[in-house]
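To close the section, here is one more complete example, presented without commentary so you can practise reading it yourself. The ligand is glycine.
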Amino acid sequence: MTRCVVVGSGAREHALAWGLAKSADVVVTPGNPGIAAHGLTCVDTPATQLEADLFVVGPELPLTQGLADDLRAQGKVVVGPGRHGAQLEASKAFMKRFLESAGVPTARYGVFGEIDAACAHLATMSAPYVIKTDGLAAGKGVLVTDDLSTACADVRDKLNGSAFGEAGTTIVIEEGLDGVECSLLVLCDGERAVPLVPAQDFKRVGEGDTGANTGGMGAYAPMRAMGDDDVARVMSDIVAPTLEEFRRRGIDYRGVLYAGVMMGARGPALLEYNVRFGDPETQVLVPLYGDGLYELLRRVATGELHEVPVTSSESAVTVVLAAHGYPEAPRSGDVIQGLGADGQLFVPVEGVTIFHAGTRRDDQGRFLTQGGRVLAVTATGATIARARERAYAAVDQISFEGRVLRRDIAGSAT
Ligand code: AMP
Ligand code: GLY
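Output:
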C-alpha cells in the first residue's frame, strides 16, 4: 500500500490522517496521544527523515519555515506551499500588498509600526475598526470593535510587543466589511485550482458570535448559503487573479489555499488567505471526501488536478470542546470523562468521530486536557440538522471541568 506522512499534532491532522488511512498507510509526525489511541501510527521522527509516497503538511508554522522546500529538495512529493508562497499567511502586510498587486477585492488597509500614527489613522476612520497583528497569532491576533478607545488600546498592546511579541510589532488596520463569512478551501496544483465544498467556521468564543476571536469553535459543511454561482464568483474574482500573481512572482503553489471570504452586497471580498487546511474546517471536509482524499492530495502535489473532486451527499458538523480559560489562559490537566481507550466515545453515536487536538494520557490511561482546543466532536448525517443532533449528542457524553463550547454551531444552517 502507498505510504503517506502527515505533519502536525492537532485535530486537523487527526482528521487528515483518518481520511488518508482509508487508502494509504499513514504515519503522523509528531501526532498526539488521541491520534495514536485511534490506531494511527505516530512517530517523533522529523518529516525530513521519513520516507513516503506523499507528505501532507498541516500547520502554517513549518510551511513558513520552509519545510515543504526542504522535502522537495529531497525529491519528495508534498502538499503544502514553499516558504515564498507561505508568506501569504506569515505576514498580513505581505498578503495585503500581494492582493493589491493581484487586483483581488479586499478591505482597504494601512500598515503601521508606530502607535501614534496608527491611533491617528484610526481617528480618521469610521467604525468598525479592524486591527490585525502582522505575524502568526493562531487566529487570535484580530480585533474587530466599534469602540475607538478599545481599538487604540489594542494598537498599543500590539505595537509595544506585550500582546503578541515580535509577531505583533507591525499591524494592519483595515476598514470593516459587512456580509456573510465563508471558508472556501481551494486546492492548487501549481497551475490549476479547484474548490472544496464551502464551509463555515465559528471564530468567536461566545454564542451569537460574541467575545474574542479564537482558532475556531466549530464548523459545518456544506455551507448551502454559498451557491454554485457564489463559489464560481470567488474562483473568478479572487482565486484566478491570485494564481496569475503566483505565476508573475514565480511561486509554484501546490497545496491548500484557504480563502476566508466575506460575501457582501457588492460581491465577495477576501478577508485573509491561509496557506493550509483550516482547523476546524478540515474536520468537516475530510468526512465528505470518503476514500478519495489520498488520490486527490496526490494530484495536488504532482500537478494533475484535472477534475473537481466527487463528494458524498452528506453533511458534517464539528463542535470544538476547549479547555477552561480558552482562549486567554487555557488550563491543562483536567480529566476528560466519556472516552474509551481508543479516544472515541465510550458509548458510540452513529456517524460520530472524535478528533483530538490538545489531549494527553496519564499513567492510568485516562485522557487529560492539554492545551486550548481539546477535542473536535464531529458528526456526519444526511442533513446538517441530523449531523448537528449527533454531534451535540456526542458532546453531551463528554465532560471535563470548565470546558468551553458553543451550543449554536450550525444552528442557523439547519
Ligand atoms: P482573519 O484572521 O484576518 O480572518 O480575521 C479573523 C476574523 O476577524 C474573520 O474571520 C472575521 O470574522 C473578522 N474580520 C477580519 N477582517 C475583517 C474585516 N475587514 N471586516 C470585518 N471583519 C473582519
Ligand atoms: N478556522 C480558521 C483557521 O484555520 O485559520
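Once you have examined the C-alpha cells, check your reading against these statements. Residues 48 and 71 are 6 Å apart (CA to CA). The mean pLDDT is 94.
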